[in-house]
Each structure stands twice: as structure tokens, then as C-alpha cells.
Task: structure prediction
Amino acid sequence: MYPYYYLFSKEKESERAKYESSKLWYYDGVHYPQPMYPFDLIWDDCWHIGLSVYNTRVFCIPPSYGIDHRVVNGYIYISPVLAKPEDIESRVPLFEKRAGYYYENWDSIWAEWKDKMKGLINELKALTFDPLPAVEDESIVFERKGFTSADTLLRKYDTLVELAVRAWQYHFEMLNLTYASDVVFMDTMRTLFPGIADKTIEQITSGLEGDAEMFIPPIQLQRLSKAAMGTGIGDAVIGAGSWDEMVSTVQQSEPGRKWLEDIESVREPWFEMSIGTGWFHTDVAWNDNLAIPLAHLKNYILALKRGENIDRQTADVVAERDRVTREYRALINNDADREVFDRQLDLVRRTAYYPQGHEFYVENWFHSIYWRKVRELGQAMVAYEALEDAEDIWYLSRFELYPILYDICAGWATGVPAIAKYEIPEKIKKRKEIYKKFQGWRPPPALGPAPEEVTEPFTIVMWGVTTEKINMWLEAAGVKPEETTEVKGMPGSPGIAEGTARVCFTPEEIGELEQGEILVAPTTSSSWAPAFQIIKGIVTDVGGTFCHAAVVSREYKLPSVMGVGTGTAAIKTGDKIRVDGNNGVVTIIERLGK
Result:
């Protein structure tokens, strides 16, 4: 099911096995809360290279090379590769020159980046995968083209893969530098203010003034909800059992028709929000499942009817951020240190938009269209009996598809059934059975020996894996989940909240959240943001200071703790818990039914 380079060596004494057994491999639940379908592994392939090459070969981040990947029972495990000590010094001037150019021109490069990404999305939209014709169009003869639909089909598949790889090269063009600036700022603050709390550093970097793209979809829903209330159609929206029913009811009035036109004007691109992380073909967009945005609209309208403010509290977050920043800056007693503080703070705030901005363009907008195109390809393969169902395509890797498409073209050319008709359906059947078993396995947080120190920037700020965190995992490994009374992680957003836990693993379960509950999840994704309006706090198994859950919880002023490792195992829906976002501690106050 998976390429050879993703599997751990079975030869225990080989050089490869010695390398693998010497490293800590930790489960990347931030991106992969479920086992990988073979085709969906394309995104892991892309970022395996993308992140690593920009670290190692392009910007030459001094202490860090790339991140290595393996698959265990369908789940992704990753391990940072540190630069050789003797290479670090020689990489510093390369990093300063190359990263410095991007930092100095950040805003113009970001604007250029968005244009490049939109061009790639338009190229993807133009791809079509229709069944091969019974007879070629006569234009092949009279325009003397010299190639046929078989050639076109194979080239289109090559283009489909090439666009995926290119999108993820763009993905990491600026992202590594963003997280590098985060890590440098954190180190600067700890040097200037020994003993400073992580929550204080997070406060100083919070408050995204203006709308990063990832926040625009929920902002649009908030605006539409207010408009629905203002035009008197709020109750019709709340009472609708489906999107079609809502449209049928609302369009009966002139204000309702204008409101629906408003929705249609924002669906492209803002409803191209994935219902999950966007890394799985099952993570379809709002445009593919309009029940999701309808549910969010209903929740917002109900909140408005209760007299609640549904907007992000950006002004309050910024005011508190600026107050804390002024107080700490005033403590600096020399101009040189003050200059360093100002420069690093300016940089970390300017780069802060990229993680939330690029994620919309790649994991949401691009991925949503990509999944549709692959489904079109699956339908074409069904027409030639290579697949029994278009959805079976996900059980084949991208490397396996080209020879099957070649087989289809050969069968079409010769007038006989493709050999895939006799070979592939049985393979798919076996893989479905294997995948189902993978779903019943719970991946441990980490495998292998703990390193003396973790320095790779992505590892720290995105996944929240630090030397201290690894030691916590090792200590927790010997405690049964049902006996756990406390889990520790990384402070994501300051404050303390107590309430009833709601454990959610999927976007569908998010719909079960009730007002005032505390969300406990393996991780969160961008499409969950509207739910942050009704919860009191957040706990995640994986994630660091700048993961999605941490960033959004700070924008909504919700106490949160990231990367607790065993939160979804130790905490059950209905348990009463306390989330201490100041110190990164989650306490189980009372078990359900006890």
C-alpha cells in the first residue's frame, strides 16, 4: 500500500535499521488524525521534500536539516534531522543573506506568492478527465496533430501530479522562515527576560489585525448571519433541515433572494474551506457539503438571538498585547537590546499572517479542487472497468495509477479490455480490509529513544515537541488513561476555564458541541473555527505554540493547552475538567458518572 521508503527496515543489523533505531519518531497527529489512504499520501510526499529542501538546501537554516518520514500501520511518524555541528557555522552567513532578502521584502513577496498560487489553482481547474472517445475526433486527422487522446490522458495525469508537487513547493517557500522568526523571537525574549512565561511571549505575538485568509470564511458566515437577522430571514435559516430547503424557503422574498445572491458571490473561494485538515480526500469542502456552513450559520444566528457578540475580539486581544509589550519593552535598560527587541518583534508580527494565509490557498482551496479532479479520474477509470467504484481510487498510490492508465490506453487502442479489469478490484478489496484494521489501532505519541535536545523549529512551534514534552510522554506511558487525573502540555492561550469536556475526533462530531463545553481533540483544523464561538476552552493531543488551535484560541481569548499527548485517551465526553492555559495543565476534576 505504501512506497518502500516509508517503511521501517526489517533487517535489524543493517545500516538503515541502525539509523532508524537511533532516532525518536513521533506521531504527526497535527496533520494525520487517521491512517493514510495510499493516494492521500501524495501530500506527505510533497511536504517531506518541500519542508526539508527549503530548510536544508535553500535557506540553510543553521541548526536544522529536514524532517524524515515513516508509516506505521498507516499512520505518519516523523523525525527531525539536525545539522551536523561542524556545518552549523558555515550555514549561518548563507541563512542570513538568503532569509534576510525574504524578510526585507516580505510583503511584496507575499503578494507575489498569492498571484503564483492563484495561477496554479486556475491551471488545476482547467484539467478534465473524460472517458476516452469511441472514435477520435476528425481534427486529429485534418489538423495533423500527430498525437491522440491516449497521449493527452497520460499527460494530464502527469500534470495533475506536477501541480500537487508545485503547490507544495510554494507552500514552503515562506513557511519555514515564518517559524524560524517565531523561534528566534522566543529565544530573544528568554534571553532578555530570563524566566518569562510562554503565555507572555504568546500574548506579545497575538492579535492578527486585519483578516488573514483562514479567518475570512468564518467572518463571511458571521456577516451573512447578521444580514439574515437584519432582513428577517433568520428563523427560516434556523428552521431549514437542509441547504436546499433553506434556499427554497428564503428565496420566496426579495430580501431573501438578495441574501442568497450574497452567499453565491462569496462561495468562490471562501466556501472552499475543508471540513477537516484538507489532507484527506474525505475532507471535502463546504461547497461539497453545504450542510457544514448551514450548521455554522444556524449557530451564529442562534447566538445573535441570545444577544451575544459573534465577532472575534480582535480589539481586546490587540489592546492586551500592546499593554504587555509596552511593559516588557520598558524593562529593557539599553538601546542595543531595545533595538533587537523592536526588530525581532516587527519581524514576527509581519510574518504571522503567512501560516494562516497560505493554509487557505493550499490545504483548502487547492486541495478541495484537487480531490474533485481525482474523483473525475476515478469515474473515467470506472468506465473502463479498471475500478468498480470511483472512490476505490484512494486505495491506489499515485505511483500505481500511471501504469493502470497506460493499461487503459493500451486496451482502448487495441480494442480489448484493460488487464486492470482482472487485477485491480481484488487488490482494492484486500486493501480495504487492511485499512479497516489500521483504523482500530491507536498510534503511540512517539517511538524510539528521546534526543538530548530538540532544536528543529517546526518540531517546536508546530507540533509542540520539546525535550520537556518528550520526557512527559515517557512518564505518561506507564499510567493507564482511566487512572490519569492530570495531563500537561504547552500553553496555547492564557486563562483558566472549567467545564464539561466534549471529545471530538471528526468535523461531524463538532456539530454535537454544546454552549460552554470544552473541546478536547487530537488536533483542530481551520473549518472548526466557527465552533470556537460556543466553547470555553480547548485541549489538543498534539500541537505547539503556533499550531492552528493555539493561534485561533488566542484570537478568541479562549484558554487552551496544546500537545498533551494523551488527552483524548484520558478524558471522556462528560468529564468535568479545568484548563489552565497559563501553565499548560489540564485537570480532570470529576469523571462522568462518579
Residues 371 and 434 are 23 Å apart (CA to CA).
